[in-house]
Amino acid sequence: xxxxxIIKPQNLVYRKPSLLNDAHMHYCPGCSHGVVHxxxxxxxxxxxxxxxxxxxxPVGCAVFAYNYIDIDWLEAAHGRxxxxxxxxxxxxxxxLVFTYQGDGDFAAIGTCESIHSCNRGENITIIFINNAIxxxxxxxxxxxxxxxxxxxxxxxGRRADLNGYPLSIxxxxxxxxxxxxxxxxxxxxxxxxxxxxxxxxxxxxxxxQAKGTSVVEIVSTCNSGWKLTPQQANExxxxxxFEKYPLGDLKDNG
Amino acid sequence: MKDEVTLMKGNEALxxxxxxxxxxxxxxxxxxxxxxxxxxxxxxMPWETTGMxxxxxxxxxxxxxxxxxxxxxxxxxxxxxxxxxxxxxQEGMSYMAASEVPALVINVMRGGPGLxxxxxxxxxxxxxxxxxxxxxxxxxxxxxSSVQEMADFVALGWDLAFKYRCVSMILADGLVGQMMEKxxxxxxxxxxxxxxxxxxxPWAVNGRKDMRPKNIITSLELDDDKMEENNxxxxxxxxxxxxxxxxxxxxxxxxxxxxxxxxxxxxRISMKAMxxxxxxxxxxxxxxxxxxxPFPEKHIREAAKNVKGILVVELDAGQxxxxxxxxxxxxxxxxxxxxxxxxxxxxxxxxxxLKEKFIND
Lengths: 254, 361
Known about the structure:
The complex is a heterodimer of chains A (254) and B (361). Chain A is of the alpha/beta class.
């Protein structure tokens, strides 16, 4: 049997979501962003929200998210995505509004906006990619970089006395009255991917039902920044990241 | 219908005028001397009447980015602040200019630098007119000198912002913001529907209704040639604004021997100084720039054709004077008189300065 005999519509078992276009992605092979982009696009399609979904992309590796997922997008200044999402949702409550931010954007330069948007209970979803490093600028220390982890700006490993402690921000957000759903997921195995998709779906539905702010942290890999192969990166994440950033729901108001 | 005449502060008149314009949203952070804008909006509760959103943000940084987002949705949104807060907003101003979104920003200036004082100043002239944020950009800068203009420039500012897809700024000072005068408020206009916004702003981010092509508002372009092209388009818009929207009030400039150039509250004080001078037989005229950018060079050059000297009166150490000198190409004496630190001169001080610099030997 030739390959062309197999590639037929009746044999289709999987397809990428049509909202995820064919633009050449700039993400490194092995990076978690591609998977999370796919999940976001799938959930929007599953919800039939193509006509009313609005994303806010960050400064960081996901700055070009707007090139890959075919919905309306705003590109925020560094750290200000949740402020922008706040305004969009308040001005147009019938839209599905979400931000897509990395650890530097969300938990360093944007901490003030992140906390206050959650505390106001804005009816938005925050997709927070935590890979413990600044990928786009070339592997510098992030607020979530682990103690002992080597980066370009802590080349001998992060030291608490010099660099402070890794910031686990989602438990803080779970304490705020404005959040309705705070969860920590990953996408390193097929089972994890399925769970992460369910979490994103739940968060988006919360936003449309005006239940408050939903935060989906995805503990992610940056194999380029960590200087590991994709497979090694997954193993390193399981071994090191999950201890500091354990997976699971931190808050679910139902 | 008889005009509705009311007595109120400049900051309050501005707030009411915005509701009546059909504003979609205000995002701001309290700072003296402009907090009445947010206070007045909250007291009016426009979300109950027109559906306008009012939100006290966590900082000026958040406010300006909320305005950036709202403007990107084609909504009529605005913020107000005073000098230190305006410094915090500069990044957002640059992003809005680069994204070509229409917004209205109000700076009711107070004395600086630093935390400075809460009293009136005009020392943010450079910051407003020369681009306080990074990159080559301009915004339309309107300078009200009365409570009436605080109200009127809301509609003017927004109309121009939507016409050119640029940021309009009302550069007031603490005196104009805080003083009470009679004012005729505009009638209430309805807010635009989403359908009207889709018609007026086909570029707006408001969801792919009927699966139209996606809209993206971004200030990022990594292709150098494309970014240069963007810059050329911005500059072409600025040249068009200079050509069409330069505004200046000229008072008694036909026969004057001396010209005062002044804007905002100091223009009002200078007007009184001019009256006193004329009673003393000194022929003084006044040029009051209404747009500080674009600067009314031609108006001033024309008004200064036969004068012996120009006095630039500002609440700062001498900022607008640079543009006045350029306007007249330094062909005649141009002197500065100003107070700083929140102090405001009397008409007599202005007249004495004019006499000292040009008449007394």
